Structure formats: structure tokens, C-alpha cells
Amino acid sequence: MKMSKTFVLTRTAADNEKWLPYFHELGVEAVSLPLIETKALPFQIEKEYDWIFFTSAKAIHYFAEKYDLAVVTAKIAVIGEKTAEALIRYGRKADFEPSSYVAETFLEEWLPQYSADKRILFPRSSLAREVIAKTLREQGYSVEEIDIYETVIPASSSNLFAALIQTEKDFLFLFASPSAWHNFEAICQTRNQSVQAWEYGSIGPITSRAIEASGCSVKYQPADTYTMEAMIQEIMREEKQS
Fold first, then answer.
1. CATH number, domain at 145?
2. Lower CB count within 10 Å: N or C terminus of the chain?
3. Contact 38/12 with Cβ under 8 angstroms?
4. Do 98 and 114 sit in the same domain of this protein?
5. pLDDT (tens digit, 0 to 9) for every residue of the chain, 242 residues total?
6. Is residue 1 part of a domain?
7. Does residue 100 lie in a domain region?
């Protein structure tokens, strides 16, 4: 597939490097612009819980650096295909996965099955959405949220962005999280660039809503499975039809 656009990957540097070859195999020019990086935060688990909820592969990674998930007695629920795969890599299979990888579906399917006497631990990013914990508390569940990692903007991002746009190529930026989008907005503002200048792809509806809230449209978004593989397939499908 030949395309005139240059795709810009905006995840962490390591994630971007992983996916660049896939785009190149498709005959698509793609470049890395890391807009987020993650850092571990200190935390300690001092209680027993009935459930642990994970909503990202990185949360599993940072939790597993300190605690062996293979022997944790609590049941584990996950949101996201990559989250479930990460859990398996650490020797554990999820006890619950929703049919669709968004918080609202998770709550719709988990809540009717488990009583409110369950104690829940929610290890998360410092920027994670609060809808799950908030809804569970409203339903009478005991939920403890702990920030185990933070998402920050890399120090080099602004200069990399400036160098990138000086090439004056036809860019399409791909986003996998609202935090990456918000960092992008901040860089554009400091560089006196309008976010309206380019087209965008999004990995899923939460990220799409963040982009659209800024008055931009999303050209590519997977319909059901919110992964990079699905985004690439969506790009291929749309381009074949155009």
C-alpha cells in the first residue's frame, strides 16, 4: 500500500520503535515522535483484596516489578487486549474480561455478577480515568486506588516536533491515549502551531473524544478492537476503499 502521508507515532519511544517496521512493511512512511513516557511511583500494598483491576499493560508491568502476580490470591480483572496479554506474560490469566474494552462496558458486565462486599484494588496511572472507581463506590464497593506510575512528556518532544514539521510533509498523527494528545496540544501551543493543521488517527473512542473536544476530526479509528494492529488494519481498509 503506497500512501503520500507520513504517519507519526506518538506513544513512548519504545512502543513507537516496535511499530515502525509494521508501517514500513506496508510501504507507508512512519516516524516516531514520543509524546509520553512512564515512570514508576513508590507504592505499598498492606491489605488483602478480593479483586485487582488493571486497565493498562503498563500498570501490570509496574505492579509486577514489586509483587508476583502468579501467586496473588485476589482475582484479577482487566480492560484491554494488550492488558490481558501482559498479565499472561507474568504468569496469570485474567478472571474477568469485558466483551468490549472500555470502562463503561466493563462496569455493565462486572457489576451484576459480584456483590458489593468485594474489596477492590485499582493500581493505575496518576492520569487514569476515574469512572470505574467512582461508579463502584457509588454502588457501595470498597475501592482503593493507588498511583503506581505516572505519565509525563519527554523532555525532547518539543524539539523533535519542531524538527519534524520543518520537513513540511503531509503528516497524519496517530494517538493511543488522551494524555499523548494533551501533550501534543501543549507543544503546539508553545510552538504557535494550530492543531487544526493535520489529520489524526485514534486507537479508540476515549482518545477520539479527547481529539474531537479540541475541534479536530479523527480520520482513522478501529471499530471494535482498540489496538495498534486494529488501527493499522483500519488504515488499510479505508485506503483500499478510497
1. 3.40.50.10090
2. C
3. yes
4. yes
5. 557 789 999 999 999 999 999 888 888 899 999 999 999 999 999 889 999 999 999 999 999 999 999 999 999 999 988 899 999 999 999 999 998 877 888 999 999 999 888 999 999 988 777 789 999 999 999 999 999 999 999 999 999 999 999 998 999 999 999 999 999 999 999 999 999 999 999 998 889 999 999 999 999 998 878 888 888 888 878 777 76
6. no
7. yes
